[in-house]
Amino acid sequence: MLEYLTEDLRNGLQQAAARTRRRSRLHVQLGDTVFPVTRMWATGLAVDADRLTHLRGLVDLYDGPRHIGHCLIIASVLEGEELVCEFKSFQPISDGPPVDFERTGEPVAGYLPAY
Question: Which contiguous run of DSSP H or E holds residue 8?
Fold first, then answer.
């Protein structure tokens, strides 16, 4: 049905759809520059190609202000309006300190808080 519309109308509809598309809280930070992530899967992620044409190396992944992890991106390919990046490894950032023993059961609830 879109093939019957004029070129100006088609471009206007595509721009309106891009503006109303739900924005993800996920973003990649490379140095001081921030790039929003359009979609993510187990072995990669996609970024808008209008601001970035090539991405490779170690980048930080954030969900809003919370640091999720480090991604080692080994390949990036332009596909349409997206830059599709494949990463070799993803190292999640934990909220607590690492432990050198296995935690079994529930933690004790009767401890007094430290001031």
Answer: helix 7-20
